[in-house]
Amino acid sequence: MSALIQSLEAAEGGSRDLDYAIKAWLEAHDKYWANRVPADWTTSLDAALALAERVLDEDEALRLLARIVADAYDDPVNGTIKDLPRFLCIAILRAKEGDNHAR
């Protein structure tokens, strides 16, 4: 998963390739994703938030969203509205990575 997170961090923006990479990781951990076409998770804040709610829970999704918005506000050079979906995807994967280490 760290390679996927690194890819998301290094990207100039969201892309369908990144969405499919996220789907591949999700599918490996939850068969719910097996026959689903990924949404525009890395380019749509609605889609990224829906993913967070599905993969984590509503409270955690809201906490992550609040954190990335605050981080973007504090870093106006690197934090833009168009990057929020990608940043939320990174936060989701980091949260799941933490869950996996706790087990």
Summarize this structure briefly.
The protein is mainly α and 103 residues long. Helices cover 68% and strands 0% of the residues. 25% of the residues are buried.
Strand and helix layout:
Layout: H1 2-10, H2 16-29, H3 45-55, H4 58-74, H5 84-102
The total count of helices amounts to: 5
Computed CA radius of gyration, to the nearest angstrom: 13 Å
Query: Mean of residue pLDDT?
Result: 90
Overall outline: globular
Q: Helical proportion?
A: 55-70%
Return the structural class.
Answer: mainly alpha
Low-confidence stretches: none
User: What about the largest sheet?
Assistant: none
**Spatial gap, N to C terminus:** 16 Å
Share of residues in strands: under 5%
Helix and strand run: HHHHH
Number of strands: 0
Describe this structure in words.
The chain is mainly alpha-helical. Helix content is about 70%, strand content about 0%. The protein contains five helices and no strands. The chain has helices spanning about 1-10, 15-30, 45-55, 60-75, 85-100. It is globular, with a radius of gyration of 13 Å.
